Amino acid sequence: MPDRAHLTFALTLHDAVAPDRTRNACWSPYSVASALGMTAQAARGETEAELVALLGTDHDKVIKGAVVGDDAVFAVANTLWASDALPLNEGFLTDLAGWPGAKARSAPFVEDPEGARKIINEDVAETTNQLIPELLGAGSITVETVATLVNALYLKCAWTEEFPEHDTADLPFRGAGNVPTMRREGNMRYARRAGWEAVALPARGGVEAVVLLPEGDLGGTEGVPEVLEALDRDRIELFLPKLDLSVNASLGDALRQVGVRTMFTGEADLTGLSPDPRLRVDDVIHEAVLRLDEQGFEGAAATAVLMRMTSFVPAEPARTVRVDRPYLLLVRHGETGAIFFFAQVVKP
Predict the structure, then answer these.
(1) Contacts of 85 (CB under 8 A, 6+ apart)
(2) Strand 25-27 vs strand 339-345: parallel, antiparallel, or unpaired?
(3) Serpin domain: which residues (predicted)?
(4) Is 236 within 8 Å of 39 (Cβ atoms)?
(5) What is the CATH class of 159-243+314-345?
(6) What residue ranges do the domains of the chain occupy?
(7) Whole-number pLDDT of residue 59
(8) For residue 244, what are the contacts with CB-CB under 8 A and spacing of at least 6?
């Protein structure tokens, strides 16, 4: 059963990440929760409490339980990059080994910050099938950087039933003119409740994409948990725009808004990672790419936590759902509810 706390985390952070409902947004709750989850294992005291309050008590179980089937392409890496000069706690390295795709690597942060940046970017690019070639921009790694916790994710899934390409046509989308829009009729899960219409499109690997279409303008996310819980099988004629989104952003301010503040200050306690008490988080950098077409979807995401010193019964006829105005899109693991991608689509 999908985890409610993980959904709450995603909705809460989305409101802070994408407060402007007139702009496209795309991010990966799975990736961010992974990077912050590793950070929480490094944290102690108030630093840890703030992270757990946002993520939920069992956040790591949701992420680790989101196993994608072999009929989809899924790659994930959770990496600690650390300076050779930074003493590490063996207990943290043991805990890190429990995360999917875990590894610990050294990087020359002090001696060659630009070289360290390139090494990390190359590793992320490899995991994400080159969809994210440069997560960390120039200047993001400095001589004061001593460690970086990085999650990188790649997911490619085919729909269990494809959209016929000959049915794709340019149709109007509010605020964006005519856009390439796909059409498919079939059995899907559907609900209408609490100001939302929701349609869940099954994909390979135990993954699904859920379209969340508001009754009016795109506003707050109130009612989303209720409509997701009400999803039931129906016969649907769905009109859905093709999609290609890419967003890179700092999440520092958004995290502070939702109560994760101490790790960015001199009061940070990251002694679960290293006995050095001066360690704190400088920034959290995130990038997500999501492409959706007639065959399925492909997405990648990466999150870096930069540390420095202080320093988811057929009915007739089919119900028609036209996604012709701004909407939300979740790509999630069917069983656990782990949200791989969360998109706010204003201009497809």
Answers:
(1) 110, 146
(2) antiparallel
(3) 9-348
(4) no
(5) mainly beta
(6) 4-157+244-309, 159-243+314-345
(7) 87
(8) 290, 291, 292
